[in-house]
Amino acid sequence: MEVRALVFDVFGTVVDWRGGVAREVRRLLGPSVDAAALADDWRGRYAPSMERVRSGDLPWTPLDALHRASLDDVLADAGLASVPPGVRDELTLAWHRLDPWPDVLPGLTRLARSHVLAPLSNGNVALIVEMARRAGLPWDCVLGAEIVQHYKPDPEVYDAAPRLLALPASEVLMVAAHVEDLVAARARGLRTAYVHRPDEHGGRRVPPRTDPDADLSVRSFEELADRLGA
Q: Fewer CB within 10 A of the terminal residue: the chain, N end or C end?
C-alpha cells in the first residue's frame, strides 16, 4: 500500500471519550451521580444533534455548541436541572480533556516519522487543538468537519483530506474504530484501516473484531505502525 498520509477518527478511536467524560462528571457533579450513565446518555445525543445540522434544521453549529445544548437535556433527564450554567460550561470542556488509549502515543510517534498525520474528526478545531496539546498528540495539521462545515459521514469531509494535503485519495488512509466511518471513507476513494476498540462503550456494546472490507484491521496503533513498516 502506497500511503503517505493517515487521517484519524478521534472520539473512540484515538481517545477514550467515555472514561474522560465520566471522570469530569465525577469531579464537577460529585460521587453520587452515575457518571458512566451520564456519559453514555450524552454520547447518545451526539449523532442526532449533528443530524439536525445535516438536515438543515440548524445552521452550521460547531460540536462544542451541540454538546453544550444537549447537556441541558442530559442533566434534566438525570434529575440534575439545578446544575448552574458555569458548571455546565466547564463540563462541556470535558470533551477537550479526553485521554488517548495507551497504544496511541507510541504508535503515532512511530507513524509520524514517515507519514503525515491529521485528525479527521467531527470535533471543532478549538476542541481538537486543546485535546492535542493536553495529550501530546503529534498532528501535522487539523482536518475535519469544521473546515468544510459538514459533519461525517457527508462526503465533503472525506474529500477535503486528500484535496488539502494535495494527495490522491488512494494515498490517504482513514483510521477509525467505527465501520460506518470507514464505509463512507471508502466511498470517496480513501484507503481504510479498522482499529478494534473493545472498551469504547465500557463493555456495554462490543464492536466487531475486524472490518473485512478494510485494507487493514488491527488491534492497536502500534500494530498499525508495524503493518505500515513504521
A: N
pLDDT (tens digit, 9 = 90+) per residue, 167-180? 999 999 999 999 99
Q: Three-class SS of residue 7?
A: strand
* Rg, C-alpha atoms of the chain: 17
- Could you give the CA distance from residue 210 to residue 84 in angstroms, rounded to a whole number? 43
Cell digits of residue 35:
457518571
Cα separations in angstroms, 1 against 62, 67, 99, 166, 227: 35, 38, 30, 18, 10
Q: Is the pLDDT of residue 204 over 90?
A: no
How crowded is the C-beta side of 2, counted as CA atoms within 13 Å? 5
Residue (of 122, 149, 92) closest to 14 by Cα position: 122
Q: How many angstroms separate the CA atoms of 77 and 185, rounded?
A: 35
Question: Measured between alpha carbons, how far is residue 97 from residues 90, 92, 100, 126 in Å?
Answer: 11, 10, 10, 12
Residues in Cβ contact with 27 at an 8 Å cutoff, skipping those fewer than 6 apart: none
Per 3-state DSSP, the chain is made up of helix, strand and coil in percentages (nearest 5) of 50, 10, 40
Q: C-alpha cell of 11? A: 472520539
The sign of the dihedral angle between the CA atoms of 193, 196, 201, 205 is: positive
Backbone angles phi, psi at 45, to 5 degrees: -95, 0
